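Incident review: delayed structure delivery

Summary: a single-chain prediction request sat in the queue longer than the usual turnaround. Root cause was a stuck worker, restarted by the on-call engineer. No data loss occurred. The affected request and its eventual output are reproduced below so the record is complete for anyone auditing the incident later.

Affected input:
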Amino acid sequence: MEDLIYLDNAATSWPKPDEVYDLMISLYRDCGVNPGRSGFDKAIEAGNIVEDLRNRLTRFFGGDQATPERLCFGYNATDALNLIIQGLLNSGDHVVTTNLEHNSVIRPINHMVRDNGVEATFVPFDKDGFVNPDDISKAIKTNTKLVIINHGSNVLGTIQPVTEIGLICREKGITFAVDTAQTAGMVPVDMQKMNIDVLAFTGHKCLMGSTGIGGLCVRNHVDIRHTRSGGTGVRSAFPYHLDEYPYRMEYGTPNMVGIASLWAGQDWIERQGGVEKIHAQEMILANKLVDGFKNIDGVIVYCCDSMVNHLATVTINIEGLEAGDVGIMLDVDFNIATRTGLHCAPLVHKQLGIVGIHGATRFAIGPFNTEAHIDAAINAVSEIAVRAKERTAVKSNNK
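Output delivered after worker restart:
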């Protein structure tokens, strides 16, 4: 698989920087004990690593630096989003979200609607793939308690105007939560400047960490009801789960290998010159990819007329073919890995009108992709588009 062209970085970034692999192994070998549960040296050392990363990521996300304990670790963004949605909404409350959301937002909200008497409004996006802040404002009602959106679409790659939406929420006294699964580590995120109250993140994408690590950052003026309970390693005689952060949002033994991967990922991002530089380099390749696709007859490119406020994620269809067939041909014939289908974001595809053809094919560029990879992808799609036209012609002639 050495020649694999990997263009599925919106799902999981791969490969990781070598220093990520190295630190995961070395930290787990040298200090792979339970942090904060015992007083021996290794346990204290492990606990210090966790707390140092809390401080580092709080600064990275522009959280409240005086209270880094409000940066809480979990499994991934989905885990964090469930905690946020279930912990902030009650029966009779109203939540505003969008058609751009991943199932990690859609499904918890739908469960709250079905099972807990919550109301929900899903705001559509425009023809370019952006949500208008005015539409969010119009959707807000007297019982709206939460507005939750993704910062960057995992299907269309569009970066949403979270600062403007956050300002609306701030003025109306409504909690604003943002899913940064696609943007954390790719574009700057500053909770204070962007008026974000609660942020969910995952480690395995642009933060260059491992799978199984993520979490949430909660501003000082917000409290999330804990919906789980269990071990914390402190105050063990207390019969209920602790209210103070980070224990309020953390349960059981943390993922120390994942913690190590996030630390190394932060080091790597800094050595590249920061997220802006990484993003700029990826967008050079994304623009090349879009330009190439637009010149191929029969290829439909979604929401890429302008690449301003965009991630290096490009989604297409080829006329006459279903997305799954395109993905198979890319994989089998050209050794190119992409993601096909509904991308766990069915409302995007429903609004685009492509659920009937089972979604689309997504190309998600990462920091280790090259111009040669992009050229190969363009050539592969061009050849597949020719095959599709020939197949359509044969079918037409046989009628």
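Verification: The mean pLDDT is 95.
Action items: add queue-age alerting; document worker restart procedure.
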